[in-house]
Amino acid sequence: MSEEPSPKRLKADEGDVGEAGDGAELEQVAEERLATELDEVQKALDKVNDEASDRVLAVEQEYNKKRRPIYTQRADIIRRVPLFWQRTLCSHPSLADQLTDEDTQVLEFMTELDVVDFDDIKSGFKIVLTFAPTNPYFSNASLTKAFHYGDDGRVTIEPCTIDWKEGMAPNFDGGAPSYIFFTWMTTAEPIGEGTPDEIAEVLKDEIWPNPVKYYFNDLPPHDFEGAEGEEGPDVEFVEEEMEVLAGEEGEEGEGEEGMDDPEVVYEGEGGEGEEGAGDGEEGFEGGEDEA
User: Where is the composition biased (Basic and acidic residues) (predicted)?
Assistant: First the structure.
């Protein structure tokens, strides 16, 4: 027969339980206090980070204005180079996969590419393509596709409408003509739903900062002959002009730090985004020309 615990033992056990309970409560109070202190510190850090973002934004806006005359000078040089943008876009290793033969033929008449940040930069940008008056494919003087960043990190895409001339509109039944790039210009959907728009990022972040880098990729010259057999550009002339331009841009941009692009998810909304070409061009960070 088991012995009953003594009153003294019962009292001791009750005391142990009480002490354990008090310890748990103290630990919870300590954790809550630490959580409150950490939250206050994080708020202070967030405030400093917001101030830093505002300062970086102000600097970026300032340098966008300084870049404008350099963009104008670059555009003037490029207009003197036959088939510059056709060759440049076709020479990009990943963008070339998004260009059909029909896309390439239309690009023969492209005279200018602008990537224009909106005034506050953080709210988005637009891509503007300008074409020669002799363009036989559509009547638009320019095509604009805009990307609007929302506060929630999502992007609304505003495509353009192309006024195709007779017999030049895409044939979605599988017959010619067939376009990928110019169909992309008119759609509000990225390449993959919920993913960044690859073509937009290539144009904005890779080709636009230094198009000469891709223009001088090694490709057969005959691939870029005009419809009437016009001769290719004077490579030495272009190299000299671009070297001068790169040097001037480098002086303007010394010490400048670019802003990181926000992490965004693209979603499309239908709409017509046809606009004229922008007065200036923003978002350019020059690099060394590569022959």
Answer: 1-14
What b-and-e string marks burial along 118-129, b requiring 16 or more CB atoms within 10 Å of the CB?
eeebeebbbbbb
User: Is 214 in contact with 88 (CB distance < 8 Å)?
Assistant: yes
The total domain count for the chain is: 1
The 10 Å Cβ neighbour count of residue 150 is 13
Query: What is the helix (H) or strand (E) element at residue 144, kind and residue range?
Result: strand 142-149
- pLDDT band of residue 189 (cuts 50, 70, 90) is confident
Q: Let me know if residue 83 belongs to a domain.
A: yes
User: Residue 287 domain-assigned?
Assistant: no
Domain containing residue 129: 70-268
Please give the mean pLDDT across all residues of the chain: 76
Q: Does the N-terminal peptide bond of residue 7 adopt cis geometry, omega within 30 degrees of 0? A: no
Tell me if 124 is assigned to some domain. yes
If you count them, how many residues does the chain have? 291
The CATH number linked to 110 is: 3.30.1120.90
Token pair of 100 as six digits: 């059909």
pTM, full prediction: 0.63
Place of tokens 């959907």: 189
Residue 243 has pLDDT above 80, yes or no: no
Residues facing 129 on adjacent strands: 113, 143
Q: Please indicate, yes or no, if residue 184 is contained in any of the structural domains.
A: yes
Q: Say how many CA atoms lie within 13 Å of 112 toward its Cβ.
A: 25
257 HSE (CA, 13 A, CB side): 8
